[in-house]
Amino acid sequence: MTPEAQKAFHQIQRKTGKAIGDFDLIEAGDRIAVGVSGGKDSYTLLHVLEALRKKAPVKFELVAINIDSGFPGYQKEQIEAHLLHHGFNYQMAATNAYQIIEEKLRPGTSYCAFCARLRRGSLYSQAEQHHCNKVALGHHLDDVIETLLLNQFYAGTLSAMSAKLLADNGKHTVIRPLVYTEETEIQRFSNAFHFPIVNCSCPVVAQEDQKRQRMKQLVHDLAREIPEIRRSMIAAISNVHPRHLLDKNYVTTRSHPHT
Ligand SMILES: Nc1ncnc2c1ncn2[C@@H]1O[C@H](COP(=O)(O)OP(=O)(O)OP(=O)(O)O)[C@@H](O)[C@H]1O
């Protein structure tokens, strides 16, 4: 590893370790399915978890899982070669998601959202087949704050992404160990480590989620004026005062005569 990659890696490891500690993301005996897409975030997640696994006092195991949704041209061989080269325990899982999307996608439904739902289902069933109790995803700090803004601006909810939650199937715990790591740190590490980046090759890949891109740009622009904006937004959702919001469920209805 080059000194630059080493430096970026240490920084990411430190932040990942803090997230693991803060949210009890990993316990002794865990078998964790790490979703690896071929993108920079999940490669980074896998390498950092492996480094932590090697030196952690608690024993846990990792299984890298790649879901091939079947889009023509998806260069999964490059992902597999990388996993093999680095000695990871892995599974490349082929699915017919592309065919299902083509047949079942209704007009007005988001292509990416439908595809992500199918992929998530396949990831959970692979996790089950490999006896994994947890599924780790590569969402990072910027994903969290962009989701926070998206939900406020477009969905009217105050929510983002949690570091740990029970999956919809009620069987697996989904963990996001990179929630404290900024995308620029991952990008720096990914560039220095020369990951073989593979995109999903889907028909809409060029028209990435426009709203998310807008949030990314907004944060980027504001960061010139408020350099600490990302840290501050993460701090904000780690320090919630529900009584000072307008959710009726959190309003105290009883009056306090002495206050
Ligand atoms: N094809 C896939 N196979 C396995 N896991 C996946 C796949 N696609 C996505 N994931 C998992 O879901 C996470 C979020 O997916 P998303 O599509 O938002 O990717 P992303 O933010 O671009 O991350 P990455 O850089 O890892 O692709 C990924 O980080 C990865 O852990």
Automatic annotation (TrEMBL):
What are the GO BP annotations of this UniProt entry?
tRNA processing
Which part of the chain is the tRNA(Ile)-lysidine/2-thiocytidine synthase N-terminal domain? Answer: 32-192
Mention one GO molecular function: ATP binding
Keywords of the record, alphabetical order, are:
ATP-binding, Nucleotide-binding, Transferase
UniProt name for this protein? tRNA 2-thiocytidine biosynthesis protein TtcA
Against Gene3D superfamilies, the record matches this protein to: HUPs
> Where, by residue number, does ATP bind?
G35, V36, S37, D41, I67, G138, D143
Record flagged with keyword Secreted:
no
* Keyword hit for Transferase: yes
Cross-referenced InterPro entries: Rossmann-like_a/b/a_fold (IPR014729), TilS/TtcA_N (IPR011063), tRNA_thiolation_TtcA_Ctu1 (IPR035107)
Pfam (any one): ATP_bind_3
What is the organism field in this record? Desulfuromusa kysingii
